[in-house]
């Protein structure tokens, strides 16, 4: 029989809660003083303690701390008539399972007790995730699916040469991680790995950031500065969002790739470079070339080897391994001890569509770990996190018509597959001609 210890100086609360939980089949202990409550706790080892913050003889927070130091597992639910920010934060910091304000709602108390006992039960099950004693490798790609296996083979081939690489995939799929693994497994792994986001720098500074500049080259150039190419040395320059590079810079960067030499802004002597270029984009560069927004000759120079990174929804079989990896990583970085998942959590994670891909999965797990009140992640917590980030939460009811939903589903699938119509038709389960008809019917166009 599960036991509950109630510590409160209000006899009416003690009597009502004792009667309520006794009728529910619990073994109930009570104490109207903190010291007496601590003694009864040590004598009877209850599974749950309902503890008032303000007691006549001891401070409830201090008592919570003593209870948490005990060897046997116990969940403490704090109750108080005073809403004090500092006290609430301190109680949760010390490991309180829940914090409930008076006047007490017995249904809310009962639910908290049931959740606490259920969490304790799962805590005692064999762990899904092993505890690690050293930092996890930040540059490891998780995946056993066929799509990822082909990427691993390509990385192996690239490790023996300096061929330029173009990585194409949706946001959050892990393009930079793949670039880092290529570099780490190359013959020049000890050389620098330099990153540059082409979409994060204003157009007027792009040339200076990439190629560097000489002193006095422009207003404000008080001294010479090396660009990203020079900083990469004989290593790797990773250019993220290469599809956002302006046409003028595309021409200048193409010249660098053709000659392996470049001029600083304001410079007169060409500088040579042997760095490898790994470019990444979440856009379909073939379409960008067709639209005249990306130079065809630069596209071919970059795609000596091309890697297509699959969406997470296209490799669902990898999600369990990703979850285990991320939980180990999160536990190490946050100092937490979340080693298990409630039954049903993994199925929920595997079946979710993950529009933000691997990055979204990791972020959801971080939030779930932070919000967890035990050593286990519950289904309810995952459902709350996923529903709060659902894109449908703000859609008006008028947008729930079937034609609208079909149009949006097709549009989002096209975007997530970088407007690859053949792959989109496969995912949607329709023929390419049918997809083309629906695109015309709904006037679906790529985002500008």
UniProtKB/TrEMBL annotation:
Subcellular location: Cytoplasm
Superkingdom to which the source organism belongs: Bacteria
Residue ranges occupied by any Response regulatory domain in the UniProt entry: 3-117
SMART domains named among the record's database cross-references: AAA, REC
Protein name as annotated: DNA-binding transcriptional regulator NtrC
Cellular component GO terms, alphabetical: cytoplasm
Gene Ontology molecular function terms on file: ATP binding; sequence-specific DNA binding
GO biological process: phosphorelay signal transduction system; regulation of DNA-templated transcription
């Amino acid at each position: 029989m599960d036991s509950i210890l109630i510590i409160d100086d209000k006899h009416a609360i003690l009597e009502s809660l004792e009667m309520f939980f006794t009728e529910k089949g619990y073994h109930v202990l009570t104490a109207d003083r903190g010291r007496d409550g601590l003694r009864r706790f040590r004598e009877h080892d209850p599974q749950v303690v309902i503890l008032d913050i303000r007691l006549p003889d001891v401070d409830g927070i201090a008592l919570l701390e003593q209870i948490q130091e005990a060897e046997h597992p116990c969940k403490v639910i704090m109750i108080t008539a005073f809403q004090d920010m500092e006290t609430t934060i301190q109680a949760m910091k010390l490991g309180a399972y829940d914090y409930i304000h008076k006047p007490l709602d017995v249904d809310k108390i009962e639910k908290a007790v049931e959740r606490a006992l259920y969490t304790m039960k799962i805590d005692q099950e064999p762990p899904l995730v092993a505890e690690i004693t050293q930092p996890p490798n930040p540059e490891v790609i998780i995946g056993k699916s066929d799509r990822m296996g082909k990427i691993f083979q390509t990385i192996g081939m690239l490790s023996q040469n300096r061929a330029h690489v173009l990585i194409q995939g949706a946001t959050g799929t892990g393009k930079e991680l793949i670039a880092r693994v290529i570099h780490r497994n190359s013959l020049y792994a000890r050389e620098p790995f330099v990153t540059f986001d082409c979409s994060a720098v204003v157009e007027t500074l792009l040339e200076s950031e990439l190629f560097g500049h000489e002193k006095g080259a422009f207003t404000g150039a008080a001294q010479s500065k090396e660009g990203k190419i020079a900083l990469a040395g004989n290593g790797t320059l990773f250019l993220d969002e290469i599809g956002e590079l302006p046409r003028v810079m595309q021409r200048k960067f193409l010249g660098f790739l053709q000659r392996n030499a470049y001029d600083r802004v304001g410079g007169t002597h060409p500088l040579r470079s042997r760095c490898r270029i790994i470019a990444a984009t979440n856009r379909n560069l073939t379409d960008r070339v067709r639209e005249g927004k990306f130079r065809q000759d630069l596209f071919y120079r970059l795609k000596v080897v091309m890697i297509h990174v699959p969406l997470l929804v296209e490799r669902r079989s990898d999600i369990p391994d990703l979850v285990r990896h991320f939980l180990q990583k999160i536990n190490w970085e946050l100092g937490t001890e979340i080693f298990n998942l409630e039954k049903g959590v993994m199925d929920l994670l595997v079946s979710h569509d993950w529009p933000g891909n691997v990055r979204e999965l990791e972020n959801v797990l971080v939030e779930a770990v932070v919000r967890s009140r035990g050593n286990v992640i519950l289904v309810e917590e995952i459902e709350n996190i996923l529903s709060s980030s659902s894109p449908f939460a703000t859609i008006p009811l008028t947008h729930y018509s079937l034609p609208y939903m079909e149009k949006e589903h097709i549009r989002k699938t096209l975007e997530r597959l970088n407007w690859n119509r053949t792959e989109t038709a496969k995912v949607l389960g329709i023929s390419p001609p049918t997809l083309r008809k629906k695109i015309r019917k709904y006037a679906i166009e790529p985002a500008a």
